[in-house]
Amino acid sequence: MRLTAKHITGLKVCLHLAGLLPFIWLFWAVNHGGLSADPVKDIQHFTGRTALKFLLATLLVSPLTRYAKQPLLIRLRRLLGLWCFAWATLHLTSYTLLELGINNLALLGTEVFTRPYLTLGLISWLILLALAATSTQAMQRKLGRRWQLLHNFVYLVAILAPIHYLWSVKILSPQPIIYALLAVALLAWRYKKFRQWWR
Fold this sequence. Notes:
Blueprint: H1 5-31, H2 39-68, H3 76-100, H4 107-114, H5 116-133, H6 137-143, H7 145-151, H8 154-168, H9 174-188, H10 191-197
Helix pairs in contact: 1-2, 1-3, 2-3, 2-8, 2-9, 3-5, 4-5, 5-8, 6-7, 8-9
């Protein structure tokens, strides 16, 4: 069955719900004791993992579009990317406001330079910010060929973000390894594209 524009609209509604429902759950968990004895870390990890899920979903769109032979699926990529940025912003905000505190925001610069995993996280967020800001069709027309060059930096985020997660956990656990392996698999699928860059 070939997907139509109406199907894509329905999928977009579902994906918006997928982006919003975790926030509703998190709000409920904060207000009803659904977190552990270290709620700040729980919030940071939850928002970071949700951002990673949307990043992986964004990277999945192209292969899914190709192998399922459903060209309209590509219209979902921007929406997923924006939700990835939204959750990454919540992740950064939770660190700066809950971990450092609103009175200690000046420490952010010091923390970023003294903790390399924070450096990777901040670089990833800045790239996502640039991608979100230039994700519209108007910006695509304005930037021309440079638009695709800029948006290829999502692959760098797909490398840095899982490393940031792996590096930030104090003990080795399977969850960050699974995210890293999924990112590697989605990047490996694009090996032909990467090979063309080096020719």
